[in-house]
Design goal:
Blueprint lengths: L3 H4 L2 H24 L4 H5 L10 H20 L13 H16 L13 E4 L7 E4 H26 L6 H5 L3
Antiparallel strand pairs: 1-2
Helix pairs in contact: 2-4, 2-5, 2-6, 4-5, 4-6
């Protein structure tokens, strides 16, 4: 039997990152077809104090790699965060999907009780049990950034809807 911690993390990340990858490909094609400036979308924000689309996708990928890596007890892959184009974001999503797709579900056994330390050794250090880390911290963070990326694109006129956001399930 597969761990519920695996089932409630990796497949969820795969579904929404695959959908986000498709949404970004749709956007890139629309930008090219209409001869628009890619940065008008890549640097778009919902509000001035929020991160732009590029950063929203980077952070979503950070959570999609970090959460299951910590739950599986493996090193979180390093990421430079130097994406500047739709092609770069596509490659980031592909790399992230490959990483999480390669995680062994058996490594998640017992992870609900594993102690996860966020920002170790800093004044903001916080310790959570694996279940709380996934359900109360990790998934809400991931959903926030994926949803914000979707909302930025939708707000800027990309012809996408809820079905696109959800992807295949």
């Amino acid at each position: 039997m597969t761990s519920a911690m695996y089932t409630n993390s990796v497949p969820v990340f795969k579904q929404l990152l695959t959908a986000l990858k498709t949404i970004l490909q749709t956007t890139a094609a629309e930008v090219a077809a209409k001869s628009l400036q890619p940065d008008a979308f890549l640097q778009a924000r919902l509000f001035p104090d929020m991160f732009p689309l590029l950063k929203q996708v980077q952070i979503a990928c950070d959570f999609a790699r970090g959460i299951p890596a910590r739950l599986a007890g493996v090193d979180v892959p390093a990421h430079d965060g130097n994406e500047t184009s739709f092609a770069d974001l596509d490659a980031l999503l592909e790399t992230t999907l490959a990483f999480i797709g390669g995680l062994d579900a058996a490594r998640f056994e017992g992870s609900e009780g594993r102690e996860i330390v966020l920002r170790p050794g800093t004044p903001k250090e916080r310790k959570l049990g694996g279940q709380a880390y996934l359900s109360s911290y990790g998934l809400p963070q991931f959903f926030f950034h994926v949803t914000t990326a979707y909302a930025i694109l939708r707000h800027n006129g990309v012809a996408i809807g809820k079905k696109d956001y959800m992807g295949a399930y």
